[in-house]
Every structure is written in structure tokens, then in C-alpha cells.
């Protein structure tokens, strides 16, 4: 047996994205939420990636990367602009926290219904 096999379970920090090496896990969580919402909107409208590229001004490979969650190199504002080009409103809300330090989150109410 190797050392890894006998060392027991691996415990993470409780933050999967940080454990995966992302420098800013909060930002990546927001980007992943936006990318997922973009993918759902494309599916909802039954669009091809080439059509989305024309709507957004991005190249089709960029749309493919976003849909596949490869969003490290895309800014939050760019991802939000893709959503607005797809006919979605994007809003940012700020509220008081009950903890000492606030958090950054993203939510999407978009769901794709199956026919």
C-alpha cells in the first residue's frame, strides 16, 4: 500500500473552491452561478452557441467555454452582459449582515422546464 492509501480520509477546509486552488473562491462561485444561468438561458431559448455569439459579440469558442464553466478569464461584468444580451435582467443587492463580515453570493431564479 502507498502512504496515500493508508493515511485515512482527506479533510478539506470546508471551502471546496479554495481547496481546488482558486485564489478568490467567492468570485468564482459568482462566476459559476452566472455561467450556469447563461447555459440555462441558452437552453431555454433553444439557441445555438453561434447564435449567442452573434447576440453577445463574443466568439463561439468563448460561449462554449462559458457554458462549460471555464470562466476564470471572464470578468463578472462580461458574464452579466451576456445575460442581458439573452434578455435577462441582472441586479446586485446589498444588505446588512448579521455576522461581523459580509459575504458575496449570486442567485438565479432561472429554471428550464422540460416539455
Features:
globular, mainly alpha
Verbal overview:
The model has no long low-confidence stretch (mean pLDDT 83). Helices cover 47% and strands 0% of the residues. The chain is globular. It has helices at 3-6, 16-19, 25-44, 49-56, 60-67, 76-85. The protein is built from six helices and no strands. With 115 residues, the protein is mostly helical. It has a domain at 22-85: lambda repressor-like DNA-binding domains (434 Repressor (Amino-terminal Domain)), CATH 1.10.260.40. Helix 3 (25-44) runs parallel beside helix 6 (76-85) and helix 4 packs across helix 5 (60-67).
What's the arrangement of secondary structure elements?
Layout: H1 3-6, H2 16-19, H3 25-44, H4 49-56, H5 60-67, H6 76-85
The outline comes out as globular
Per the CATH scheme, the topology name of one domain is 434 Repressor (Amino-terminal Domain)
Q: Biggest β-sheet, characterized?
A: none
Low-confidence stretches: none
Q: Could you give the distance between the termini?
A: 51 Å
Q: How many β-strands, per DSSP?
A: 0
Rg estimate, integer Å: 18 Å
CATH level 1 class label of one domain: Mainly Alpha
Instruction: Provide the CATH architecture of one domain.
Output: Orthogonal Bundle
Report the helical percentage. 40-55%
Which sequence of SSEs, written as H and E, runs from N to C? HHHHHH
Question: From the helix content, strand content and strand pairing, which structural class follows?
Answer: mainly alpha
**Superfamily (CATH H level) name of one domain:** lambda repressor-like DNA-binding domains
What is the averaged pLDDT score?
Answer: 83
Please count the helical segments: 6
Amino acid at each position: 500500500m502507498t502512504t496515500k492509501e493508508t493515511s485515512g480520509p482527506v479533510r478539506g477546509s470546508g471551502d471546496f473552491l479554495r481547496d481546488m486552488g482558486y485564489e478568490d473562491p467567492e468570485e468564482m462561485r459568482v462566476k459559476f452561478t452566472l455561467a450556469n444561468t447563461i447555459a440555462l438561458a441558452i437552453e431555454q431559448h433553444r439557441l445555438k452557441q453561434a447564435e449567442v455569439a452573434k447576440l453577445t459579440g463574443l466568439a463561439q469558442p468563448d460561449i462554449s467555454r462559458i457554458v462549460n464553466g471555464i470562466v476564470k478569464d471572464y470578468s463578472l461584468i462580461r458574464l452579466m452582459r451576456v445575460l442581458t444580451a439573452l434578455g435577462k435582467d441582472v441586479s446586485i443587492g446589498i444588505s446588512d449582515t448579521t455576522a461581523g463580515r459580509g459575504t458575496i453570493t449570486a442567485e438565479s431564479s432561472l429554471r428550464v422546464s422540460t416539455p
